[in-house]
Amino acid sequence: AQTVTQSQPEMSVQEAETVTLSCTYDTSENNYYLFWYKQPPSRQMILVIRQEAYKQQNATENRFSVNFQKAAKSFSLKISDSQLGDTAMYFCAFMTHSGGSNYKLTFGKGTLLTVNP
Amino acid sequence: DTAVSQTPKYLVTQMGNDKSIKCEQNLGHDTMYWYKQDSKKFLKIMFSYNNKELIINETVPNRFSPKSPDKAHLNLHINSLELGDSAVYFCASSKSTGNNQPQHFGDGTRLSIL
Q1: DSSP category for residue B72
Q2: Chain B: closest CA distance from residue A111 (Å)
Q3: CATH classification code of B4-113
């Protein structure tokens, strides 16, 4: 079974500082995609960043970047210059094969990040 | 200009009732999904449709019946609601079924069973 593990249920960081959220996954596939989604208190699910497994370069989106270690099956999210609006639940997700040419997102249990003023 | 819209946002009803949640996307995507988020915030896929055809059914009780009248709509009908059905239900869509396609989510429907 393909799984996604987020070992930090909750984290907090001071405004303007940097925080890293961890994620590990398990798969036997070679080419796959990983995602981080953010769910603020408003309940929306917002795509933050995605990484293609065959690309060695780590993805970045403004203040958000990943540290992708394929051999270790690790996909951590780094948030630089944390802002109050970054307070949210963060979900790591892995696109897993679901038969034929179909794929589904498998989510980790989430990390609740609180940014303190 | 909402991309994926679900209605209603909140649904409070009695055990045993039948209810529906509607979802529409205006992104021109071919694939749509229903996810359930439980009280511990865990998200799990329920169904996926591609061009109106069911492609993923994740061991969901028969009381849940998705319907896709066209590829822009995917509705979820639930019969004989039970207490355990209380959750937030998310609709999502993606351009296609490929593993590189990010999914765009609606704002969720919070279903509360009394």
Answers
A1: T
A2: 10
A3: 2.60.40.10
